[in-house]
TrEMBL record:
This is AAA family ATPase. InterPro entries: AAA+_ATPase, P-loop_NTPase. It comes from the Bacteria. Residues 174-366 form the AAA+ ATPase domain.
């Protein structure tokens, strides 16, 4: 399992949606959320963007203009919104309507402040929990089974992939959880990140979901990668566009390690802006969630693993909201646990049985290891002399260090630093290799005494 990054197996623009695009909503009934929720969003947007016109509000809220106009009319009747007419010379022009601007009245500002205190979310109108659940189930990756060619392409930049392909393919298609285990540096996290390259479809992710009286922010700039550059937010065409409350993205790839806490697995408020944030598994729906460094989280492993028993068994998850309410969402994702600890020592046997696939990662064979050195050194513009490679193999044998795929990148990086500092030719000889090796490994790792 190497760490050479080549061109992506499939261009992201070729990732076709697995389902038909969500249709643009044309009535309040189709939104399936209370009208007051949308009114509060309009008030908050006008507080943030004073004197906006209908087109600007439609762009910000992601719904069609006639719905905005109807809601603005109601807000005017309640004396919450004021109107700023276009100038006299343009009042009869065809574009005059778009130049009518709206702002909050004094009472409207008070209402907006109240709305912000309850919920600081500002963005597109949320989709209903019912519609969200239906979309997630429709985009289940198991509905579009991958082939050997898909997995081989996804792992084309992974040395030792020939052993992993026949194991990972069935595992991904099963939808069951994976346990990736083995020595540190064997490529577990790297391969987990590459799994998504085999899932050759894209998915629609909502900006937010309305559930149990609350707006939950789902779209994450950190975890979701939009691929539809044509889906701009300026013009809504019922024929050529889809519902702008959704974003067409690559399948999510969420990875979290030792920093994981139980709070991250529940809907929670941000301490700074009071926005309800979706938990990691909701953000990862229709994609993959990797729990890296299992056994190094602050909570006991049993506590963490027990959190997943029901979701993995029944494909749905119960989420407790900060206000005490509870909602149910689909749990439709590939879950992978990765650890360099002995699984038998950190997980209960009953839980291990629930994991459909347990995949051990091992050191590379010598030929793959040397090929990895060759490719990486070429990429760095370095020449590794034959004598250096002989010394390298001797060091592995002397110190009983496996051919781990992380080593070429790390040791070559140190070698390059030495060469640049010494201002010598870009060649790695036995001396430089030895210096880099000694700087990379601690004395006790090499069996030497430590003061």
């Amino acid at each position: 399992m190497g760490t050479i990054v080549k061109d992506n197996y499939q261009k992201k623009s070729e990732l076709l949606p697995q389902v038909s695009p969500p249709q643009i909503i044309s009535s309040m009934e189709e939104l399936q959320i209370p009208e007051a929720v949308v009114e509060n969003l309009i008030l908050k947007h006008l507080a943030a963007y004073p004197k906006s016109d209908v087109l600007q509000l439609a762009s910000l809220l992601g719904i069609v203009t006639h719905l905005i106009e109807d809601l603005l009319a109601d807000l005017r009747k309640k004396a919450l919104v004021e109107v700023f007419q276009p100038t006299a010379h343009s009042i009869f022009s065809e574009s005059a309507k778009s130049h009518v601007r709206y702002a909050l009245s004094e009472q409207g500002q008070l209402e907006a402040d109240t709305a912000f205190r309850k919920d600081a979310y500002i963005g597109p109108v949320p989709v209903s929990l019912k519609i969200y659940n239906e979309m997630v189930k429709a985009q289940d990756l198991r509905a579009n089974l991958i082939t050997r060619q898909d997995v081989e392409g996804a792992l084309s930049d992974v040395y030792g992939a020939q052993r992993l392909v026949p194991v990972l393919g069935p595992a991904i298609n099963s939808g069951r959880a994976l346990l990736l285990y083995g020595h540190a540096g064997t490529g577990k996290s790297f391969v987990a990140a590459r799994i998504l390259n085999s899932l050759n479809t894209s998915v629609y992710v909502p900006h937010a979901v309305y559930a149990a009286g609350n707006i939950i922010k789902v779209f994450s700039e950190q975890h979701h990668k939009p691929i539809d550059t044509e889906h701009n937010r300026e013009v809504i065409s019922l024929k050529s566009h889809y519902d702008k409350r959704w974003v067409l993205c690559e399948r999510p790839n969420v990875q979290v390690g030792g920093e994981l806490t139980m709070d991250m697995l529940e809907v929670n408020h941000s301490e700074h802006n009071r926005i309800w944030i979706a938990p990691l598994q909701m953000i990862a729906n229709n994609g993959i969630l990797v729990i890296d460094d299992l056994g190094r989280q602050p909570m006991p492993v049993a506590t963490l693993l027990n959190r997943w028993i029901v979701p993995m068994e029944y494909n749905y998850d119960h989420l407790s909201l900060p206000n005490g309410q509870q909602i149910t969402i689909p749990f439709v994702l590939t879950m992978a646990f990765s650890t360099n600890l002995n699984p038998q020592k950190i997980a209960d046997p009953a839980f291990l049985r629930r994991l459909g696939y347990k995949i051990q990662f091992q050191a590379l064979i010598e030929s793959d290891y040397l090929n990895l050195w060759s490719d990486l050194s070429s990429g760095k513009g370095l020449e590794v002399l034959p004598s250096a490679l002989e010394s390298l193999l001797s060091l592995h044998s002397l110190h009983n260090v496996g051919y781990f795929p992380c080593l070429p990148k790390d040791i070559l990086g140190i070698s390059q630093d030495i060469i640049q500092f010494e201002q010598i030719a870009p060649q790695v000889d036995s001396t430089i290799l030895q210096r880099a090796w000694d700087l990379y490994f601690t004395a006790d790792e090499q069996g030497e005494s430590v003061l």
